[in-house]
Amino acid sequence: MKDKDSARIERAVEVAREAHEGQFRKTGEPYIIHPLAVKKILEEWGMDEDTIIAGILHDTIEDTPLTLEDIRKEFGESVAFLVDGVTKLSTARNGMRDIDTYLPETKDNFLRLMIALGDDIRVLIIKLADRLHNLRTLSALPPEKQKKIAKESLEVFAPLADRLNMGRLRVEMADLAFKYVDPKRFEELNNLIEKYNKSAERSLKQIEKEVGDALKKEKIKFEISGRVKSVYSLHKKLAKHNQNINEIYDLTALRIIVDDVTDCYLTLGIIHSLYRPMAGRIKDYIATPKQNGYQSIHTTVITKDKHVVEFQIRTKEMHEYAERGLAASFYYNEQKLTENYKKGKIEHLPTNLLWITELQMTAARLREGKKVDLKKLKLNLFADKIFVYTPKGDIIDLPKGALPLDFAYRLHSEIGDHVVGVKINGKMSNLNKKLEQGDIVEILTSKNQTPKTSWLEKIFTPHARHKLLHTLNDTSRNNTPDRPIPPVRKK
Ligand code: MN
Fold this sequence. Notes:
Radius of gyration: 26 Å
CATH class of the largest domain: Mainly Alpha
Number of domains: 3
Strand content: 5-15%
CATH topology of the largest domain: Hypothetical protein af1432
Structural class: alpha+beta
Bound molecules: manganese (II) ion
Helix content: 40-55%
Oligomer: single chain
Number of strands: 11
CATH superfamily of the largest domain: Hypothetical protein af1432
Low-confidence stretches: 331-354, 373-383, 480-485
Distance between the termini: 53 Å
Number of helices: 19
C-alpha cells in the first residue's frame, strides 16, 4: 500500500466531501466517513486506483447532485463506468422486495442479479467493501433494519465473497451479520469456541513445537499459526451434523505456510509421521482446487493426548489467494478488467473463475437485445442446480433431478396439493418428467384434487416430501384413519 494518496485520489476525496456536505449517517457522523471507510477497505484489498476512486464516489450519483458526466469529465471513462455500475446495482436492489419475502430458493436471484449487473468484477468488489463498512456500523440502525441488512449479508454477500474466494471477508461478514440475525446462538457458539480453544491451548503449543522442530530438521522454511473458526461456519456445520459437536473435526486448526508445493507435500508427510491421520480426512485441494480457486492440503490428525487437530498446508501465494481471493489477483497483476473485457480478453481470470466472465458476457448480450440460449449458459456458480421459470418469468431454482411436483410445492403447498397436470414449455407433460435448465413450468390445479400417496414416488426434494407427508398425515387423521402411509423412500 502507498503511504501517500495520488493527486487523483486526493481530488476524489475532495469532490466526495463537497458533494456529501451537510449529509449525515445514522451514527450522527458526517456522511463522508462512509466513502472514506470504503476507500480504506479497497486500499487494504490492494485494489487499483480507479477502483479506489470509484469507491470514494460510489454514493454520489444516487445521493448528491453530482452527475455521471461530471465524474467522467474529471476522472475518466473507467471510473465513471464503475460508479455507474455500483449505482445501477443499488437501484436494482432498491426495486427488489425485502429478501425475507422471497422463497428460500429464489434468494439466489439476487446474487445472480448482482453478478449479471456487475459488468466488471470491480463493481462487485466495491459493493462488497460498501456492505462491509455498513455491517461494521450496523449498531446505529433501528433493529428491523439491522436484521434485514444482516440477513441479506448472510444470504447474498457472504456467499458472493466465498465465490470470489475472499476468505477473510467472508468470515468477517458472516460473523458480523450472524450476530444480528441470531444473537443468542452467536453468543452460545462464540463461548463454545473460546472454551474449546482454551482447553486445547496447551496441547496446541506442544504440537506447534513438535511440528516446528521436525520441519526445521528437514530444513523446510515455514510459518505456523492457529486459525480461528468462524462462529457462523460452526453454526452451519453443526446443523449439518445434527448438532453433534464431536463430529466437527476442524474446531482446532493449525495453518502451515511454506515456500513451494513440494514443501507442502513434505510437510504433510512429516505431520503424518508424528501423528495418526484420521481416515478419509486428507483433502488435497492443491491437486484439485475448490471451484472458487481455493488451494491447500487439509489433514486431520489425532495427537498423543487425544486431541483432534486439523492442519492446513499451503504456499504463500495460495494463502494470499485464499484470504483475499479475486482481489488478490488485482494486487499481483493490477489488471484492468474493463479494458480487457471490452477487448474480449478473458484469460487474465483464473480458469475456475471464468464463470464470472461467461455470465457477464451473456448479460451484456441480453442487454444489447441479442438472443441468448439460456440453456447453453453454463451456470457453474450454481452447480447442481437448475433454473426454471414460472409462466410469469419468476425464476425458481431447484436441485438437478427435481420433478414438477417439487416445483409446485416450492411455489406453495396449496398449489402442490391440488396438482392435476403440468405444462412444460407450453406442452402438456407428465409428473415424472425431470425438469431441465431453462424450462418454463406451468402447474395446472383443480380445487377437487387431493394429494395421493403415490405422489411420493414423483418427488425429489425433501422440502416437497415434507409438505406432502404433512398434508397426507392431516387428511388421514381427519378422514380415513386407517389409510397406511408408505415409508419414506430413501434416495
Ligand atoms: Mn455506500
